[in-house]
Write a structure and sequence with these properties.
The chain is an alpha/beta fold. The protein has 16 helices and 12 strands. The strands form 3 sheets. It has a 7-stranded mixed sheet with strand order 2-3-6-7-8-9-10. The protein is globular and about 60 Å long. The chain binds iron/sulfur cluster.
């Protein structure tokens, strides 16, 4: 195999911010990935797809953004993350910020150091236990959500599917240690490959091991294979290691849909099977409200909750049309309010005594539990967040989302400082007791 080669890429910016939070990684900000291409070399990686324009040999020719930390410092210096509370997600789906080359370049570590003064929470997704190295830094952020991707417990299958990543046992250990360090943590169990890693017993064992390690969620998902380089690469592995599955995969992915999705019926069956397992194991099947409400402002956490509720209710066969309409209406309101407040150029760190602490202790203390000692921000230190929370409080939620029943539930959630429990679809207090 050819030796890896590296080329410098100039990062033009360090952090971007959304007008709405991103529901998948529950974040408002996104820090650029330090690398392009990924030495983990997963057989199914969609980073190979033409859509992402990563040229060269995906896992051996790596682009390196040497100036990323500098760009992040510039962005923080000009106040990009100064006025709105919200988690920063590092990296993207087409590279891993703790891949092997991070041991040599330490760009993720420098990016984290540059992000520290933002005093924002951090969300990191990886398949590598090299993340241990940075636990010291992560503990200095108000909150850190450490997500490990684990698609199988079987070390041999993992070595074929994810050759450069840490073993499944080490990834589970990373979850355990993240929880022991006081971080939020859970598992992305995706993609589960048909006939290889998606068997019922195998998935159930995975969920149980994740639970034993302290994972707060296991977010499963199926395999997509975009026609072109991604699909060709995966099929080459399949032909070598699982030739008996070739005809199954040809059928499943024969439509060559641009998204790479398999036959609809197969997707529906897998979703049904996975959600049943997760429900039986009482494990949230996506990042739960109890986790991300500490990573986002109240208005943003509500938006993510509404997005997640659509999946949660759809899985149970409920017509989610009204919920979708309410989410769109609320999302439109939130985006417009935010844009208007951004145009006002509120000063950094202004504090409105009337609305500070409005929603109790939702934007919370970090792992140490001592906000002042760890430099942890409160919503009131972020003027746009503070103003948005004030706007939200001015009227019943039903007026904003256009749905009386949902509005009543959300008003209750806000006033009781509640948590929406995903497995039971009910409101609970932060200590887990029911709100009747
Ligand atoms: S770790 Fe992620 S980005 Fe890296 S090769 Fe695997 S799937 Fe692709």
């Amino acid at each position: 195999m050819a030796s890896p080669s590296f080329s410098g890429i100039e990062a033009k910016s360090g952090i971007s911010r959304g007008t709405l939070p991103e529901p998948f990684l529950v974040s408002l900000y996104r820090a650029l990935a330090p690398y392009r291409g990924c030495g983990h070399g997963c057989a199914y990686c969609d980073g190979r797809a033409e859509k992402y324009f990563v040229e060269g040999i995906f896992d051996r020719e790596i682009g390196v953004r040497f100036n990323l930390a500098e760009r992040i410092r510039d962005d923080i210096g000009r106040g990009v993350a100064a006025k709105e509370y919200g988690a920063v997600a590092i990296g993207s789906g087409v590279t891993d910020v703790y891949q092997g080359y991070e041991g040599r370049f330490a760009l993720t570590r420098s990016a984290l150091e540059a992000l520290l003064p933002s005093a924002q929470p951090i969300v990191i997704l990886t398949k590598n236990d090299r993340i241990f190295r940075d636990f010291d830094l992560l503990s200095r952020f108000p909150q850190a959500l450490v997500i490990l991707t684990i698609t199988t417990l079987d070390a041999r299958k993992a070595s074929l599917l994810e050759p450069g990543a840490s073993t499944p046992a080490r990834r589970l250990e990373a979850v355990k240690r993240a929880r022991e360090a006081g971080f939020r943590s859970g598992v992305m169990a995706m993609p589960l490959c048909p006939g290889i890693t998606d068997g019922e017993d195998e998935v159930r064992a995975l969920v149980r091991e994740c639970a034993a390690a302290g994972a707060e969620f296991v977010y499963p998902g199926g395999l997509t294979l975009r026609p072109g380089r991604q699909k060709d690469h995966f099929f080459a592995l399949l032909a070598r290691e699982w030739p008996g599955l070739m005809s199954t995969y040809r059928d499943l992915y024969g439509e060559n849909r641009p998204s790479g999705a398999p036959l609809r019926q197969a997707s529906r069956e897998l979703e049904g099977r996975l959600s049943a397992i997760l429900r039986e194991e009482a494990m949230p099947a996506m990042i739960p409200h109890g986790v991300y409400r500490d990573l986002l402002s109240v208005p943003d956490a509500l938006f993510v909750l509404l997005c997640h509720m659509q999946s949660l209710y759809a899985e149970r066969g409920v017509d989610t049309g009204p919920l979708k309409a309410a989410t769109e209406r609320y999302g439109g309101w939130l985006a417009e309010e935010r844009k208007a407040l951004r145009r006002k150029r509120l000063p950094e760190g202004s504090r409105n005594a009337e609305s500070a602490g409005l929603f109790g202790d939702l934007n919370q203390d970090g792992p140490t539990g001592d906000p002042e000692a760890s430099g942890i921000p409160k919503a009131g230190r972020f003027p746009i967040t503070e103003a948005l929370e004030g706007r939200l409080r001015e009227r019943p939620f039903a007026d904003v989302c256009g749905n009386e029943r949902l509005g009543a539930l959300m008003d209750r959630l806000i006033s009781e400082n509640g948590v929406f429990d995903y497995p039971t679809l009910s409101l609970k207090r932060p200590d887990g007791s029911s709100i009747s």
